Amino acid sequence: MTAPAIDQALGFTIPTRHARGRIVRIGPVLDDILAAHAYPPVIERLLASALVLAALLGSTLKNAQGQLTLQAQTENGVVSLLVADYRNGDLRGYAKFDADRLAELGPDPSLFGLFGKGYLAITFDQAVTGERYQGIVPLEGESLAAAAEHYFFQSEQIPSVLHIATRHEPGQGCIAAGLLLQHLPEGEVGRERLHVRHDHPEWEHVQTLAVTLQDQELTDTGLALPDILWRLFHEEDEIRVTDPVDMAKGCRCDVAHIRDVIGRFPASERAHMADEHGVISVDCAFCSRLFPILADSFDQA
Ligand SMILES: [Zn+2]
């Protein structure tokens, strides 16, 4: 028996259907990330979904050091900013929101209720080539997953199925998980992308199978990730599964960078930022770590 997969991402392809995908489940890593913030449950679920989405998309990056960043932003939304990023298995994220307005929305607000009119930016940074690519879509549909599906269809012309589920039971930790299934362009160069054709029955077939996945299956830690793929696609000729990638809580904040940012302010402004002991307190938005910096520890500029 294989141990149930948790805090892992798994890649897979279904060669005869020209489909590829990812499946991710996070638990202890998610608890660890959420523990830094003390967010209300609605925001915890939202951030959990964003982290799963970042892991699903980020683990498709060809280079391990590449980074995937999700940023959902609005002008007047209850949630003004939601950020999640992924690099080489490391996940981190945070949210900014109006707690009073959030409380008025009740326990299960819609995506529109949370963000109003907003947009989702998805940024792929390829570490080795230095290539950076950003796609932006309106935050529309029922969920972040729906908005990202729309992004793939609209900006990338890649038909996709995205399913994200979260589970939080009192006294137990949080579990969040997701499945991404995509139709691969048939040959990268010199051929039309598959979507240009109006019918592609092999995609419709695997899509029909993928959408039968239940939230409860995704978040059931007794059900290993490969077993979910088997349940969905066992009638296919072949499913190739790649080695799992372990997920971890990772933050890249460091005191040298923070000093550098503070050092760019004029000395008078630095003095203004400091408390009565001359200490400027800077906290990392991602991990809530606190960096105390002495205001007079900079060269006078
Ligand atoms: Zn940090």
Q: What does it look like?
A:
With 301 residues, the protein is α+β, with helices and mostly antiparallel strands. It has 2 domains: 8-249, Hsp33 domain; 255-300, CBS domain Like. Helices cover 29% and strands 30% of the residues. It contains 10 helices and 14 strands. It has helices spanning 28-35, 41-58, 99-104, 111-115, 144-154, 201-210, 215-219, 225-233, 255-263, 267-273; strands at 8-14, 19-26, 67-74, 79-87, 90-97, 118-125, 132-138, 160-168, 174-183, 240-241, 245-246, 248-249, 279-283, 290-294. The chain is globular, with a radius of gyration of 21 Å. The relative contact order is 0.17. The structure holds zinc ion (ZN). Zinc ion is lined by residues 251, 253, 284, 286-287, 289. Zinc ion (ZN) binds at residues 251, 253, 284, 286-287, 289.
Provide a brief overview of the structure.
By secondary structure, this protein is an alpha+beta fold. Helix content is 29%, strand content 30%. Zinc ion binds at residues 251, 253, 284, 286-287, 289.
CATH fold field value of the largest domain: Hsp33 domain
Give me the CATH superfamily of the largest domain. Answer: Hsp33 domain
Q: Which blocks of ≥5 consecutive residues have pLDDT under 50?
A: 187-191
β-strand percent reads 25-35%
Number of helices: 10
Question: Between the first and last Cα atoms, what is the distance in angstroms?
Answer: 64 Å
Overall radius of gyration:
21 Å
Instruction: Tell me the major beta sheet.
Output: 6 strands, antiparallel
Number of strands: 14
What small molecules are bound in this structure?
zinc ion
Shape: globular
CATH class of the largest domain: Alpha Beta
Mean pLDDT: 89
Examine the secondary-structure arrangement and name the CATH architecture of the largest domain.
3-Layer(bab) Sandwich
* Overall tally of domains: 2
